[in-house]
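Format notes (please read before filing issues)

Several people have asked whether sequences and structure tokens are stored in separate files. They are not. Every record keeps both together, in the order shown below: the sequence lines, then the token lines. Line labels are part of the format and must not be stripped during preprocessing.
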Amino acid sequence: MAKPSKRDPKKFRVYVIVSRDDLFATSFPTVICAPVHSNYIGLKTEVEVGIDEGLKHDSSIRCDELISVSKSDLTDFIGSLPPQKIRELNQALKIALEID
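Then the structure lines:
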């Protein structure tokens, strides 16, 4: 959970860190994250998540809205994605970034 960008109407936003694991362990101050929204609009670049992943309700990870977030702004650990959701997230990121 972190403070969202100034454009975001929410006071706090849940994010999924999509930067590589070893970057988080360095002194580099930011990581790339995908925001989690409480609605699903059906894009190929969204991944449905919910209670099984530690959230309060059904939501979606939006890979078209990647953002650099200061590590110090990431305040609360919510949960982890199971291997199948990580595969779906990787696929959604490939589509969003047009990576073969």
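For reference, the curators noted about this record: The longest strand covers residues 30-37. The chain has a mean pLDDT of 90.
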